[in-house]
Write a sequence for this structure.
DNA sequence: ATCAAACTGTGAACGGATTCACAGCGTGAA
DNA sequence: TTCACGCTGTGAATCCGTTCACAGTTTGAT
């Protein structure tokens, strides 16, 4: 089930939707695969392949209808209603994330934050209430939360992940520089900024060499 | 030159190094490919392939010598000396990044921040001086900066990228939800948290379905 | 009504990353 | 000294995402 749709394709669909939303705001009604590809930094064939995943059809002469395509991607990516997300660790990064996602997407919303620091709990941060860790299991259950963001220090991440998985969460977005050990039924996406930065630095150096 | 070493391999090497540093702290002297693989969430064969990239050899009976392997990865990934990094956009995310990377890695350091907000410039934030945008070109040149982090609002990102590239930067770590248009000689790594979160939410929902 | 043009939809080809599978090797035991 | 073991190093095979290439389609022009 996990491999049925490659996660790369899911990423592209998410990107397409954002690009299309911009186009819709500019009153663009139709778009060709090569135009969307250009904006997404992909090939036209790739875009058309991705349309196949959606089962979405365009017109050979007009291209894809922007409004309907946005809807089709939403029907594929989004849950039926609101999907609530939990955030654990309201530190520097956690707060940045809260501020960014606050009220941004209608279908995806961080509605519960948790922290072990007594100074941070029982108050609302960027519109999201911050709770004590003791409340995690019950709140996750009550709100049927299946997705959580881990933004605690590396040493705490595994314990937090265990608690989340124990509470029923089966999708984790992990910012801690650790590989979480979780049951196979749990999807983990690691955002590893140290690695990303090292990679950019590495290739930047290589580009310099090439230019010389 | 860019495709010579797949960027996936660079990411893994960066991860290996961090895992190995933890092991070294625990006084572990040698490690087998399957042990490192397990920690990194990869296969043993993959680890051995990556050792080939480094031209690094292990002993059939002891495995790889941790200290020497850390050094070998450093020799491959790191610049000769200190590689300085610039950060543009000292908002919520920019500050989190500054606090995180402050004095963390010896070879990679964010030594110049820039912001267009007069309230933020001409002071030191998390140990990093924040400058006016007007100073960007000259400081990048003086410090020989080739790598930069873009953490400004989406609408500003392209202009900022143009300024950075114009100043000679050829590696960008971009947090803005936009595809930057840059010359082919510039390496761009996009960190797209909206897409990452949508992806996790999508697979978390699928996992639920599978369990039922 | 016919045709030219430019797109879409998709089977097939491709290529690069991953995994397999095993020869070669160093070591410790007998 | 010899042997058995379990690892490394790596050519070959495999897998899977991407791209190619073209038949099919729609529309606007003549
Ligand atoms: N800030 C960044 O830009 C950045 C970059 C890369 C990685 N990271 C990683 O993200 C994580 C968070 O980074 P940060 O800069 O926000 O750190 P931080 O120290 O500012 O925040 C960590 C927060 O987690 C809370 N916490 C600690 N232990 C906890 C526990 N057991 N349960 C619940 N909450 C707990 C703390 O009270 C604090 O509020 C770290 O793992 C860090 O390595 C951050
Ligand atoms: N905060 C997050 O967790 C998060 C998540 C995903 C994406 N992002 C993206 O990262 C970027 C920054 O997010 P943020 O939350 O820090 O936003 P923010 O509004 O808090 O900070 C933006 C900073 O950029 C500065 N700035 C604006 N225009 C500039 C310009 N032309 N030149 C230089 N500086 C300029 C502002 O003064 C401000 O300090 C945005 O593109 C956002 O979409 C942030």
């Amino acid at each position: 089930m996990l491999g049925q749709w490659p996660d790369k394709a899911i990423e592209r669909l998410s990107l397409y939707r954002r690009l299309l939303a911009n186009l819709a705001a500019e009153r663009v009604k139709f778009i060709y695969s090569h135009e969307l590809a250009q904006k997404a930094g992909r090939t036209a064939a790739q875009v058309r392949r991705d349309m196949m995943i959606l089962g979405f059809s365009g017109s050979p002469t007009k291209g894809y209808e922007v409004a309907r395509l946005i809807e089709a991607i939403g029907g594929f990516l989004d849950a039926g209603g609101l999907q609530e997300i939990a955030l654990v660790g309201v530190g520097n990064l956690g707060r940045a994330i809260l501020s960014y996602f606050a009220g941004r997407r209608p279908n995806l919303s961080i509605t519960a934050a948790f922290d072990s620091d007594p100074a941070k709990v029982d108050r609302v941060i960027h519109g999201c209430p911050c709770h004590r860790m003791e409340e995690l299991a019950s709140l996750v259950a009550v709100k049927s939360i299946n997705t959580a963001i881990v933004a605690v220090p590396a040493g705490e991440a595994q314990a937090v992940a265990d608690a989340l998985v124990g509470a029923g969460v089966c999708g984790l977005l992990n910012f801690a520089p650790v590989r979480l050990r979780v049951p196979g039924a749990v999807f983990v996406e690691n955002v590893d900024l140290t690695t990303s930065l090292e990679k950019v630095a590495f290739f930047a150096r290589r580009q310099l060499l090439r230019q010389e």
Observations:
- Chain A has a mean pLDDT of 95.
- Chain A has two domains: 7-76, 83-195.
- The two ends of chain A are 48 Å apart (CA to CA).
- Residues 32-34, 44, 48-49, 51-52, 57-64 of chain A lie near DNA strand C (CB under 10 Å from a C1').
